[in-house]
Amino acid sequence: MSVTKRTATNVLLDTALKNFYGAVEEMRLDDNLIAILGNSERKLEVSVPVEMDDGSIQVFKGYRVQHSSAIGPSKGGIRFHPDVDADECEALAMLMTWKCSLAGIPYGGGKGGISCDPLTLSMKEKERMSRAYAARIAPIVGTWQDVPAPDVNTGGQEMVWFMDTISKLHGRVEPGIFTGKPISYWGSKGRTAATGYGVATCGLELLKAVGKDPKGVKVSVQGFGNVGSYTALTMANAGAKVVAISDVTGTYHSAKGIDIKKAFEHIESHPKKLLEGFSCDGCEKIEEIFSVDADLFFPCALEGAVNEKTAGKVKAKWIVEGANGPVTPEGDAILDQKGVIVVPDFLANSGGVIGSYFEWAQNLAGYFWTEEEYNERLMHIMKGNFKLVWDYAQSKKIKMRRAAFMAAIQRVADVVKLRGVFL
Ligand code: GLU
Questions:
Q1: pLDDT at residue 128 above 70?
Q2: pLDDT range class, residue 275, cuts 50, 70, 90
Q3: Given strand 74-81, what is the order of strands in its sheet?
């Protein structure tokens, strides 16, 4: 490969680039295609002025990166977090390109966010911030341009503020620009649980592939937001024993198995939707989740969680990545030595964006499906994609992550080649 390889100081971007270059080298992809796909099409940085409740003005930094629109409109979430910056958004946008490609849905990849601590903002401040951000990115988003969705610390409410702002700017209803909207306002039944449901489905397919019955399999789940909570619930419903869950307030462990429905009720009644103060039969609060005695571990919190410091502690034999980029390359190498099988993020958590595609398609048609139709189609796609990557990895004797990257990159590269280079 004679292309100059990009490197980055940001851990997530560095990971995204290393995984990309590793895969294209093995695929012997054409240098021109490597050069095109190793860069983002567009990176936007905006200032987001917000009038705070005390009357002062605070200016936040916002971003939207479009890595690729080769296959279709860029697609990917918007997160509110103090660590959001241009590099993080670019890494996550690249990952979205591969995620949508592997999923077989007609999108490219994008990602955005605002660097802020949403836990310190009031509802009104969050609303003003969301609306100001939507207005700033309005010129580059659109139903056939770039379709954002929820991500870390954003959900249905934020999507409504975004959509409402842009609909008012355009003077017409614009349901297809944002997905992950509430059911009452152009959303679709099934979308809220879709990511976690899909992550757990990959966990169950993995157990099937290694010949294990989910009943009694010990599971730990890091993160109890939208992804982790529905992953834990689906695994518990399948008969697995969820022995540990965690969020920013700590790790909650019970060797007897945690009542996940009770944990749901707890976060529902907590003002910030946290596990703080949660208790259950045999529950104890412990230091961290990695060394918990579990067979199957779902990292569903943030990127970089399983790294050179934490990977050695992992007792699980199998990992299914619910978060985006939760395992660093150093973490991967340690897990590999221990023989841990890892189902990669952009396969495992693609249920969210596949669900977004369903919502977008329903918005375009102005016709909504039943929840059963939604879930049935989602499961069909998730199971098919798991099998595709599992079989490819087995036949080539490579890791699932490498197999997923190769399959995903190939589809985008083929379309870039087909369309030719103009822009
Ligand atoms: N934020 C989710 C993800 O990382 C969903 C993106 C979407 O639906 O566009 O996959």
A1: yes
A2: very high
A3: 42-51, 57-68, 109-115, 74-81, 146-150
